[in-house]
Design goal:
- InterPro entries: PrsA_foldase, Trigger_fact/SurA_dom_sf.
- It holds the Pfam family SurA_N_3.
- It comes from Pseudomonas fluorescens.
- Keywords: Isomerase, Rotamase, Signal.
- One of its GO terms (molecular function) is peptidyl-prolyl cis-trans isomerase activity.
- The protein is elongated.
- The strands form 2 sheets. Strands 3, 4, 5 and 6 form a 4-stranded antiparallel β-sheet that branches. A 3-stranded antiparallel β-sheet has the order 2-1-7.
- By secondary structure, it is an alpha+beta fold.
- The relative contact order is 0.13.
- The chain has 9 helices and 7 strands; from the N terminus they run H-H-E-E-H-H-H-H-H-E-H-E-E-E-H-E.
- The chain has a domain of about 120 residues: Triger factor/SurA peptide-binding fold, CATH 1.10.4030.10.
- Helix 5 crosses helix 6 and helix 7 crosses helix 9.
């Protein structure tokens, strides 16, 4: 992780003892995101965009930015809760490795401990919140991967006792259908027989780096296409989580 990201983590994942002080900015399935936590994160959020609270003169713009910052905290809480539902486990070695990377990036043990103290952490509590962050990140990646790789199938119905001519005609029709989708799919099977007829199994929306041609001047176009697809997938994943869970946005009122 970059230093900027690490600093944001220190304000995104405040210890519970600090995060639950004072009024709530939002609740996610009953779990509070406090105004204290939002205030701490909002300043970092603006700084990350090269802005300062004092420079925002327009009340509407201020409110929109604050709502965007709260969106990030809500999304992180949703992903963390989803990771717990699905039993995502982050191994101890990965957590320790990330903590050590943070220590080195910040500039050694002394600077690391000072920044933790400023954010209301000690090393033990920060280690647990790093585990939480890694679990949320893994959950997000898994959900996006599931959206990119969707298994579909086509079926040409044929009676189990159909004659050879009917079977051959069904297979021909299926192969014609196969030709129409093969260029847009990461994988397309051959014709598969079942008691219901002939099936074609394929993967839809499989977007792996190795599948994208990077030649003959198409790099910029294909790269932008993949970025757009990834951005859309991220938005869809988070939108689906928001719909499926109970969110109360108190700070917006």
């Amino acid at each position: 992780m970059k230093l900027r990201t690490l600093m944001l983590l220190l304000t995104c994942w405040l210890p519970v003892a600090l995060a639950n002080n004072g009024p709530a900015a939002a609740r996610v399935n009953g779990e509070e995101i406090s105004e204290f936590r939002l205030e701490r994160y909002f300043a970092e959020y603006l700084e990350d965009q090269g802005r300062a609270v004092a420079s925002i003169r327009n009340p509407k713009a201020y409110k929109q930015l604050r709502q965007a910052a709260l969106d990030v905290l809500i999304d992180k809480e949703l992903l963390w809760q989803e990771s717990r539902k699905r039993g995502v486990v982050i191994d101890e070695q990965s957590v320790r490795r990330q903590v050590e990377q943070t220590r080195r990036t910040i500039g050694g043990t002394e600077n690391f401990n000072r920044r933790l103290q400023e954010a209301g952490f000690d090393e033990a509590s920060y280690t647990e919140y790093m585990r939480r962050e890694l679990a949320a990140q893994q959950m997000f990646a898994d959900l996006i991967r599931q959206r990119f790789t969707q298994t579909r199938h086509l079926l040409v119905k044929v009676a189990p006792d159909a004659d050879a001519a009917t079977q051959a005609q069904a297979r021909l029709r299926l192969n014609q259908m196969r030709a129409s989708i093969i260029s847009a799919s990461g994988f397309v099977s051959g014709a598969v027989r079942s008691p219901f007829g002939w099936h074609l199994i394929y993967l839809q929306n499989q977007l792996e780096a190795s599948d994208v041609p990077q030649s003959q001047g198409l790099e910029a176009v294909t790269g932008e296409f993949v970025r757009q697809q990834q951005t859309q997938a991220r938005r869809q994943v988070l939108a689906q989580l928001r719909v499926q869970n109970r969110i109360e946005r108190i700070d917006d009122d």
